[in-house]
Write a structure and sequence with these properties.
mainly alpha; 2 helices; 48% helix; PLC-like_Pdiesterase_TIM-brl; EC 3.1.4.46
């Protein structure tokens, strides 16, 4: 899940719809 160009912090900050990893998690 660390293959994304943006850090996990950005994904958790409000990228649930933009970050597939958040949906899987």
């Amino acid at each position: 899940m660390s293959n994304w160009p943006y850090p996990h912090i950005v994904a958790h900050r409000g990228g649930g719809k933009l970050a597939p990893e958040n949906t899987l998690a």
